[in-house]
Specification:
3 helices; 0% strand
Amino acid sequence: MVKLVVRDRESIQEAVRRFRKLVERSGIKKEMRRREYYEKPSETKRRNRLRAERRGRHTRLLKTQ
């Protein structure tokens, strides 16, 4: 949960800007997008496997250079 304490003499625009940064850093926005639609467990596993393959390909490329 993100909590924002508004400072003395802080404008609303500044407080909203700080709030957006806090939400972005905490990962809430990413989590909301991920949960927006139901994803079957098989799709989740497939996405994770593809991400791992890409990561492995990338590390192998870096090692050969």
